[in-house]
Write a structure and sequence with these properties.
The structure holds 2 protein chains of 2 kinds.
Chain A (H helix, E strand, L loop, with lengths): L1 E8 L8 E4 L5 E5 L6 H13 L7 H4 L11 E8 L2 E8 L5 E6 L2 E4 H12 L16 H5 E2 L12 H15 L5 H18 L8 H48 L2 H145 L4 H24 L1 E4 L8 E3 L2 E2 L4 E4 L3 E5 L4 E4 L6 H22 L4 H28 L12 H11 L13 H62 L3 H30 L3 H39 L4 H62 L3 E5 L5 E6 L2 E3 L6 H21 L5 E5 L7 H14 L4 E6 L11 E4 L2
Helix pairs in contact in A: 5-16, 5-17, 6-16, 7-15, 7-16, 8-11, 8-12, 8-13, 8-14, 8-15, 9-10, 16-17
Chain B lengths: L3 E6 L13 H25 L3 E4 L11 H12 L4 E4 L12 H8 L4 E3 L6 E4 L2 E6 L24 E7 L1 E2 L11 E2 L3 H4 L4 E5 L5 E3 L3 E3 L15 E7 L6 E6 L4 E8 L3 H14 L5 E11 L1 H18 L2 E5 L3 E3 L3 H7 L4 H15 L4 H23 L1
Parallel strand pairs in B: 1-2, 2-3, 3-4, 6-7, 7-10, 8-9, 10-12, 15-16, 16-17, 16-18
Antiparallel strand pairs in B: 1-13, 5-6, 11-12, 13-14
Chain lengths: 875, 375
Amino acid sequence: MIIDFLEISNFRKFRDPLRIDGFTNGLNIVVEPNETGKSTLLEALRAALFVRHSANTELVRSYVPIGDSVAPRVSVGFSAKGTSWTLEKQFVRSPFARLSGAGSRRESDAAEEALQELLGFERGNNRGSDPETRGPLGLLWVEQASALAVEGPNRLVRDSVRGVLEAEVGAVTGGRRFEAIRAKVETDYGALRTSTGRSRGALAAAEARIVETAEARQQAETSFREYEQALSELEAARARLRIVQRDLDDPEQAEQRRSLEENLRTAETAALRAAGAEAEHGRADEIAKTAATRIEQLDSAERRVSTADEARGAKSSACGVAKGAYDEAAVEERDLRGVHEGARSEREAREEALTAARGRARDFAAASGARRAIEARNALAALEEREGVLVSEAAEAIDAGRLDRILTLERAELEARARFEAGTVKVEFDLSDGFALRVDGEESQASTFDLVGPTRFDIGSAGGLVVRPPAGSGRSLEADLAASNDALAAALRELGIASHTAGVARNERAAAAARELHALRLQIAVACPGDPTIGLDAGADALRAFVADIGDEIPVGAAPDDDIDGLERALTEARLAEVSAAGRYDESRAALSKCETAAAAANAELASAEREVEAAAAQLRTALSHGERAALEETLAEAQRDRAARAEALETARANASAFDVDTLRRRIANLDRAASQAESERLDLTGRVAALEATIARAGPTGPAGRLAEALEDEQAATAARDRLVLEADTLGMLRTALADAASEASRTFLAPVTRRAATYVQQLLPGCEITFDDELGLASVTRSGIDESCGDLSRGTQEQLAILTRLAFADLLLEDGAPISLILDDPLVYSDDVRLEVMTNMLQEASKRMQVILLTCRSHAFRHVEANRIALA
Amino acid sequence: MASIKFIHTADWQLGKPFRRFPQEVSGALGEARLDVIDRLAEVATSNGAAHVIVAGDVFDNVEPGDRVVTQALMRMQRAAVTWWLMPGNHDHARPGGLWDRIRGAAPAGVCIVDAPIAVEMEEGAWLLPAPLEHRRTVADPTSAMADMSTPPGALRIGLAHGSITEFGATGESTNLIPPDRARLSNLDYLALGDWHGHMTIGERSAYSGTPEVDRFGRDAAGSCICVTLHPGQAPQLERVETGRYRWLSRRWEVSSVEDVERELATLRGEARLSDVLLSLKLVGAASLSDRVAITSKVEGQLAHELRHLDLDVANLLARPTPEDIAEIDIQGALAGAAASLQARIDAEGVDARVASAALERLYVESMRFNAEDAR
């Protein structure tokens, strides 16, 4: 098909009729900016070719320009099968289709069918959007949206291409037959195994059955084993029971036990006898031992008596010696005591003499001292009298502060007087005698008056005179003066002085007295030195007290004439003599004490020896109480003989008893009894066990454990065989399936070789070293670059788009060879291509346009500027 | 001196499960084994024999269960003969086991001889049994027969289960019986069991064989022996067929369906096919189309006629002809698949057998498609 022209009106934005013609057989480039209606043109073309005129779909209604109520109309002029055709379609309102050409003209549905026939597509979905129905036009119509996708061609193209290819390679795939067989094999295989080779369906069931039967077989084995076990145990138990029974019934055992018991009785009798003999021997032995002991006791007592007597003699003489020594010591002690007492008396006499002499000397000294004290006391009285005067005088001293105050007051009084005198009226009378002067009515002797207020003076009866001093000041001055006078007078009165001057004088006198008092007191201290010989302390007070005690009168005799030193020497000598005598006396006393102790010890020992003599005598008496020595010795000999006889008897009895060991016999009897009892118990156990086993067998036997095991074994074998058959079946189908798949791939490869070859020619130009393969659906299956497989999805968008166009070119070539020239319509292609690729692509398109019509719609005029083509601009 | 007539039988193997067969077959085989008791009773009655002696392996195992035991005893009870049952290696005697139980439940006409003690069957005729107490006995189980005393002039009938020493067919080395036991123990007749086929050993010893065959490898029908003993004379032995099912083994060399037809015709002449269990080995080489036709003939026709068919076609080699392959497809993917499978078969690798089956399957599927397509 070659498109010649396109004419539209009332189609979306193209309200006014638009005719695009001048499409040539070669490369046509329709350049228009975006949104000028390029895509609308394609939509119109699609509507004309693929949408039935009578359709009333939303798509079709969208052809009507917005806001208008007109009928969209499209006319396409094209050549096909060597003839020019004109297709006209009107939609929505008065829809019609008309196909005219080759001298004929078809209308409506007939026109639609003729169009399908002519262009090789099927009636689609009236949207023109189903690529499967578009036929070759669909393949070669690379719309903007789908240009990128490297899709396989639609079914109609596939069939056409297959037709071409089958003719070319001469291969027959078997087609439907192959698919049917393959599907059957797949189904059969799928019934046994999953695609991953896992068992399912009958095979899985068979495998499960094996497990099941194996379990059942194991169970049956267990049951059978238990049954067999029970039989074996029963046999063993019965055999054992027989043995036990035989043992229990064994007459030998009974005989053995009887014989053992007899022996035991014999042995017990012999043992009894031996015990008796042993007792008798023991008694005889005791008697002999007693007799021997008695003789020993006698020996011992006799020995003791003799020893005690000897000891008493020795002790007695020792005692005598000690007594003598003691007496001698007593005499010596008495003598020395006398000497010592004499020495003491002498010393006491001398001491007495010395004491008396010393008393006399002391009395004299005391009397002398007292006398001196009295004298001193008397001297002291005069001094103390003077001291009292001085103390009074010194006490007259006036405090300097108070004296100063007197001075201040005096000055104040002077000042007040001065002020008063200046402000008063001084009136002086010089009255003649006889005249009585009365002042304000009062008689006065004064002659001078300082007046401060009106004052009436009456002089006799001569009348009076009133003096009136100036009013205002006089009175206060008078008061001040009076106050000063009073204060001064009070202060002087307090101190007992007439004036300040008098005060100063008095203070001077007091100071002199104080100085003298000091000296006097030193003198008094010197006058009272104290006297230790009479117990008098220093100081006046002590002296006064001392003298007060002794009174004033002390007689003083003559001084004694004793030789005290001589007396003292004599005393010393006497003392030495006494000490010497005392030492000797002490020593003699110690010796006496020692002798006394020795004598006492000797006495005690003697007493002890005597007690021992008595005790020994008592022992001897006791020893002899059993008889005299001869009798005792006779008894011992008799007992020893008896003991020897008993020992012999004992030996015999023992020998008899040892012939049978009672313990052993008893043990053996006990063992026999125990064995019998155990056998009895075992018989009981075994009888029970046998019964239990018989019951078990009686219960298990009727169920046929062996039969069930045999069945279970065969079931398992049958299950295994069934599984093996199914495995073989599955293996067979698996292999067949694989063989079919491999063969299909191989056939495809062979079959698709021509397509691959053609496409490769193009691809090599664009992507040197790159190989492509196609799948069964003629879709691009793989791209191999430098030997590395790449999924189409992983390729860049540009490469994908370019490959999409190139594979279409390859298919177009095939169709062309089939005698169906075709129009390749590209809507804004190669937008992702770089300049180099774009140039390669445009070159290829240009090359292809020598064989087929290529219509390229684009908004990128500069991108295709270098391309030599028929350019069509939209008006 | 009295003479005696009795039926000698053995190896009933009652309770044998036959589980590898389909249920309807195994059920029928099991029932047939019980039914043969009735048949033996008939044989005894019709021959005027009052005794049936069973030389071991009455049961298939040491404890087949009450159902089998009861079924067997009931059948024996209704026959007017005395049954002498002896344990064999399959059902050897165990104290407290199967035989003790059967003895407790046995009707009047059933005697259990599970001890090596001579018993008088009837006046002047003594049975000397050699029952087995173990599955395998190294010692000669019949050795005690020599010491079994019987009244002077009485008929001595030995009953034993095991292999004759020089017999060796089963390769077993246990339960061995000396071939001259009858002479050694002064027996008038030694009734033997264990060997499932009929066989006489000298003039006084015989294996009766099983009355109902239970495995392939015994083409002859099951049978028993009707024995007549006269003092001082050689026993008269008559083999009487008792078996219902025939277990036939065949190896057919075939290369076309016609060969099968021919063999089949022969087989039909030999036995009643509905009572035949056939173990069939097909050998030879055939084209794919022939092989498919042969197997379909055998499986689609013969198998249905028979009681049971055990078919082994592993040795019927498929030799696909160019026509066979062309039938699949001349070219295209199917032809490619067939060629690749053929290559595997030719390589004779481990998967050659599977490949052969796969190719045959492909052929079958192609034919089926053709048939369906034609409809």
